[in-house]
């Protein structure tokens, strides 16, 4: 929809102009990319909806970490419903057909959800760091209520940080096999454009990644320190302490995987947009168009992979899924027997 999306005009040859301006080529990506986006939507909507349902249904799942996970699932659902379908239409259609309001609205929501995802991942990493470095203090302050307040603040902050999109996003006239309308960012100057792209990169990618890296560096240092033995050397207390540490370690590993997936999925498009704006010899051609399309598919796929991670790495999620859908697991047991 915006500078990171598919608004790109392929070069026209003179003989094409003579043949007719109203016909445009139907490229492979015109059906392949929407098909891929449809698959992402199906998997993402089902998976993230199940995550929210399981957390809300089972009381033992209402922990601070799971509140952040539910917030992450909510951002993915909004992104999949409000942004992906409109982006998918850019590939088979020659231009934007939904008007100026939807142009601003979709681009704004996309930026809000991406920003909320970044800040939520940062909050989750900070939460895991707090648990690891200050395990006793965290018992008092890490409550679902605090996580809910933080999540609300995340959404408010994301709306504020994304507001510049409403200023620069608009309908522009273009030409590709005839006059077309495009939903794109329009800046007063190249300096404004570069400043805005850099702002987006820092706010929605670099700063969260650096903050998360700092949190996990502290965690690694803390884990490397010797643990304190119980004062009364009670075996049951010691066993409970080891079990708690083991559970927290598994949760921390799951959060690490989620963060790494975000960095890997969103990294290519962020780097491409920076290259597109700052490299003096950047040339818009079919090769760069294919790279941008691949990078977009990578970033959009991130909205559907998190529930898969919870299913494979989250022991509490696995148990809750079994309780919620016992008939599926009974069937599996019968087949195995």
From TrEMBL:
It is a multi-pass membrane protein. It comes from Gasterosteus aculeatus. Residues 47-310 form the G-protein coupled receptors family 1 profile domain. The lineage of its organism: Eukaryota, Metazoa, Chordata, Craniata, Vertebrata. It is found in: Cell membrane. Residues 1-21 are annotated as: Disordered. One of its GO terms (cellular component) is plasma membrane. This is Kisspeptin receptor 2. GO terms for molecular function: G protein-coupled peptide receptor activity. PROSITE patterns: G_PROTEIN_RECEP_F1_2.
């Amino acid at each position: 929809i915006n500078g990171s999306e598919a608004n790109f005009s392929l070069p026209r040859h003179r003989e094409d102009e003579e043949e007719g301006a109203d016909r445009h080529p139907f490229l492979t990506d015109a059906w392949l990319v929407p098909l891929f986006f449809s698959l992402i939507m199906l998997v993402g909507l089902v998976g993230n909806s199940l995550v929210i349902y399981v957390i809300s249904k089972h009381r033992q799942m209402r922990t601070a970490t799971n509140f952040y996970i539910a917030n992450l699932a909510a951002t993915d659902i909004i992104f999949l419903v409000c942004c992906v379908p409109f982006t998918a239409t850019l590939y088979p259609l020659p231009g934007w057909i939904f008007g100026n309001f939807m142009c601003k609205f979709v681009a704004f929501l996309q930026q809000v959800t991406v920003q909320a995802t970044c800040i939520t991942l940062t909050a989750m990493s900070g939460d895991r760091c707090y648990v690891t470095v200050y395990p006793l203090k965290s018992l008092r302050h890490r409550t679902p209520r605090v996580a809910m307040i933080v999540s609300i603040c995340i959404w408010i902050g994301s709306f504020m940080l994304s507001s510049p999109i409403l200023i620069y996003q608009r309908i522009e006239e273009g030409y590709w096999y005839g006059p077309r309308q495009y939903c794109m960012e329009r800046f007063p100057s190249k300096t404004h454009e570069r400043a805005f792209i850099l702002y987006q990169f820092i706010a929605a990618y670099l700063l969260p990644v650096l903050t998360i890296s700092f949190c996990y560096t502290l965690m690694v240092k803390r884990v490397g320190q010797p643990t304190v033995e119980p004062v009364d050397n009670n075996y049951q207390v010691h066993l409970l302490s080891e079990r708690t540490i083991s559970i927290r370690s598994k949760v921390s590993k799951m959060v690490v995987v989620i963060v790494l997936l975000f960095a890997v999925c969103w990294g290519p498009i962020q780097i491409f947009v920076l290259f597109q704006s700052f490299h003096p010899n950047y040339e818009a051609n079919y090769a760069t168009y294919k790279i941008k399309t691949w990078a977009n598919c990578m970033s959009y796929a991130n909205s559907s992979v998190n529930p898969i991670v919870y299913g494979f790495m989250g022991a509490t999620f696995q148990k809750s899924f079994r309780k919620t859908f016992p008939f599926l697991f009974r069937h599996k047991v019968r087949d195995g027997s």
